[in-house]
Specification:
234 residues; DNA-binding; mainly alpha; Four Helix Bundle (Hemerythrin (Met), subunit A); Arc Repressor Mutant, subunit A; 3 strands; two-stranded antiparallel ribbon; elongated; homodimer
Chain lengths: 234, 234
DNA sequence: CGGCAAAAGTGATCCTACCAATTTTTCTCC
DNA sequence: GGAGAAAAATTGGTAGGATCACTTTTGCCG
């Protein structure tokens, strides 16, 4: 866990670079002028410019490639309007990350309008079917699992919720790898996924939530079995 | 919304600073050696060092104060083990931010052990009492409101949940300012806060949750009245 | 046309010098 | 001796130049 403070757009140079990108309407993938040119265009020193560049690189907004140039990775961040959250999640807070993800995942279900259930069921079934012919190996399973849950998160219509869950899942990388290396756990997960998809097909909101809650509980139990929580919430 | 991507610890200089902090076992609030000294200690140039410093400052790990020094804000971040999550919340996603915050706030209540209810009630009452003598002006009210909810989030024992909620609240700065400028809304909020505190005092979990849910719903209604949601979730 | 080497362009690092804000020390005056 | 102001020292902030390392482009040669 830890901190944030979206206090970042305080940096004058960072802001001026973002404004430059917005003014030129640069698109993702496009190259920015070279450092030596930008220095003239923005009227700043090369050091200050580079410091700001490094911050934007760490944020994932810029992609700096030695020898070839600086490229825009993500477009249109507005320092004045938008907010940036930088969370530092400590490894010994697996339990907290799990709890947050569960809370958001369960809420996502409530947000899905019942009329979308058939479409959700179809998409869920597709990812399950795609896994049929494939040998159940680590990477493919990790991808399937993430995509399965993302379908539901996306159906909630809340992209922020989706992004937070994805970020937290990325934080649980090691744990998930270990989990999906166990044959019994994999089979259980797939059975539970199928059950969730079926519940969507039946159009029963209560059943969906129950099946999803059961899957979350079972997942948590498996993780805690492998990684005993040193200091549980209470 | 936008992206996560915790890819950051790639930076060699950032890592060496973090390792330095870990090696010296520096605690939050402590001062690091001056830039010119660190340059000698880490065997790097001042520019490269500063670039890394700026990244860590943007992440909220360091606090750089012109003229006085560089201070550690958050301790012990381990590049290999821990994860940094960067979220960008767009301004046109007020509705999504509200939804996420509500989901986490409600979950926080479930996480509070009933035996802690009396302590929570006492702390909530203190912030309410502190507001008594004071003229109900904007800033003081914003602070009270944030602290009131943070007491509950803190009581959940989940610091990650607390941090996300705080960040999202910061993102709703404008909306909250407008809201707390309205006398009727302020009085309603304070009444609801008092009711929540009372529910904790009575030790009734269901009552607490009901009162809290009512407060969240009422707050959302007020915000939506002022800022009509262009594209509601559903 | 293809391949290879040179040249140009770009970011990476280091250095020096100086500016700006803060803290500490020193000195003056009462 | 104490208080306050001035001076000095410390610290981060900015600028620019020189050079290294990597990539892309150019152009020569076969």
């Amino acid at each position: 866990m830890q901190v944030p403070g979206s206090a970042f757009a305080e940096n004058k140079n960072v802001r001026s670079i973002l404004e430059f990108i917005a003014r030129r309407e640069l698109q993702p993938g496009q190259r920015l002028p070279s450092e030596r040119e930008l220095v003239k265009l923005l009227g700043t020193g090369r050091n200050s410019l580079r410091e700001a560049m490094k911050v934007l690189e760490a944020m994932g907004i810029l992609d700096i490639r030695h020898g070839s140039g600086i490229f825009l990775r993500k477009a249109g961040f507005q320092p004045g309007q938008d907010a940036a959250i930088w969370l530092v999640v400590h490894k010994n807070e697996i339990c907290n990350a799990l709890t947050v993800r569960e809370a958001l995942d369960l809420r996502a279900i409530d947000l899905i309008p019942p009329r979308d259930y058939p479409a959700v069921e179809r998409r869920l079934q597709e990812t399950l079917d795609a896994l049929e012919g494939v040998a159940p190996v680590g990477e493919a399973l990790l991808d399937h699992d993430l995509e399965f849950h993302n379908i539901i998160r996306r159906a909630s219509g809340n992209e922020l919720l989706l992004n937070i869950c994805v970020a937290l899942t990325g934080n649980l990388y090691d744990e998930r790898r270990v989990l999906f290396g166990r044959k019994d756990r994999v089979e259980l997960s797939l059975r539970e996924h199928a059950q969730i998809a079926r519940a969507f097909g039946q159009g029963d909101a209560a059943l969906v939530k129950q099946a999803y809650a059961a899957h979350l509980a079972s997942t948590r139990a498996s993780i805690e079995a492998v990684y005993p929580i040193p200091d549980a919430n209470h």
